[in-house]
């Protein structure tokens, strides 16, 4: 080994001895420091004794220990590389050094924490709230970065102390708010906004809260009160505002005069400007970067305030006629002034829905209001009674296949309010012809909306009558069809002229939909009448397979059915058109004929006396039913089973020879109304089994097979 190597090896050995000697001494010193710091913290925060005055001295000792630690650390790093395998004691001491370094850092942080707590108390007493926030933030950062150390339970005590300080701080700021601004709601319908004159305390408190929590909870509560108790009444009610002051405070007193009535828009605007100028003068503090107390308030309420002013104030100023429209520029100027105040005070910003833009769009607002009024007026017309009616259309023409020309509306009755409604719609369409394109479209759509609304609204609003009164059901049917007919005329008269202004302009959809709805409601009633016929006839004692005599209930039920149709004639024959009336009365009469025919045909045995009585019952129908129709001779056009009912009556009262002659080898009237098997069954129930009957039955069967 060279002399240089021996010297270096000797130096390393000396350093290792030095480290091994100093580490235990440093550990002993650290334990002493630890005990002193813990005792100091416990005295202040656990045992509540006097504040420790040795904190600075302890901190200096910690710093000196850190310096000693650094020296040992450097030496250990130098020698550990070559002594790694040979000096176990040195390695243990190096590990001990790392542990000592960690504990020493914890103790140093405790010393800093104690200083920060004292600094917070001092700054809070001086009302330097923004400085308090910085101290608390730093304190929290240090406290919660310290890893667990089972020998320092006092850390948990300090963390609890931090939480108490934080809550104490927030409560203190709340008290500052309470002392400086308050909204008092009194039972005499007065509200007082009380603000302390300009001072640095409230400014510092708001800055501190905003920096600490990113919101100002206590100001949020004041904003909510301001909105509900001041701003909403200013817009929605008749109120007065009074300002007052003394040496320390200023007041704005709101007195509600009539909560149900609104003030004129000028009064509302004036009061709004008074409120916000009062706040701007007495409560305009800097809260943060580019943020003031009023812009903070604005962030919360600006969009709701804009909506409140537009919906509950400006909307009421929209004119209803051209004369008022020409004077509306005054409202626009007043709105401009109000918006300037709201922007200057930072209540509004550039992104807020502009009340001036709303007011300036008066042409659209004007036409929208008129359309709303038209729709409201139309709704009131729809509420009128349906039974107040008038006759319209062209009379029935017996020489025309349809009873009238295709372009004509058949004579019937409609509700007078339909004429009134159509007159309103026609006036709107005339107005659309002379309006600007945008307004023309809005007016056209309004007419369309009125027409679409008619069947839905009327069928619901008058639903009780439309479910029970046949006259009103018929009128509603006619009303819908008359409107549909008129719409097709308007396609030519108005839509052809509006088509150049609008993308689509016709009433084809509405004209198609109205009759569909009308038919559905009317058909439901007809179905109900047919069902009623079935229910009445179910009690006629004709439901068996045999019959020995005709029950008195049979004639009674038939008469009841006829009477029911006679009542319908009373209310329908002057309401419905010729064809519609006869068609639907015919369907009901046909259901009665079907009941009687089916009941008779299904009997297996009909005595002669019963047959005579059944003929008498059929005669009731044959005599009274034709009178239900506008022209009794046209009953066969509307009652498909009318001829068959006559033939049943004939068979019941005829001989076998007469029946055979009327069959006429499958070419007679009987053959036109009866299937062979059906007629054969009726013959079997009426006549005894004889050679003549058998021959006739065979002939009828053979004829039907050949045919």
Automatic annotation (TrEMBL):
> Could you tell me which residue ranges the Centromere/kinetochore protein zw10 C-terminal domain spans?
409-487
The processes (GO biological process) annotated in the record are: endoplasmic reticulum to Golgi vesicle-mediated transport; mitotic spindle assembly checkpoint signaling
Q: Which residues form the Centromere/kinetochore protein zw10 middle domain?
A: 190-382
Q: Which Pfam families match?
A: ZW10_C, ZW10_C2, Zw10_middle
**What cellular-component terms does GO give this entry?**
cytoplasm; RZZ complex
Query: What are the alphabetically sorted keywords of the record?
Result: Coiled coil
Q: Domain ZW10 C-terminal helical spans what residues? A: 556-700
What positions belong to coiled-coil segments?
55-100
Q: Which InterPro entries match?
A: Zw10/DSL1_C_sf, ZW10_C, ZW10_C_2, Zw10_middle
PANTHER family in alphabetical order: CENTROMERE/KINETOCHORE PROTEIN ZW10, CENTROMERE_KINETOCHORE PROTEIN ZW10 HOMOLOG
Q: What is this protein called?
A: Centromere/kinetochore protein zw10 homolog
Gene name linked to the record: LOC115891075
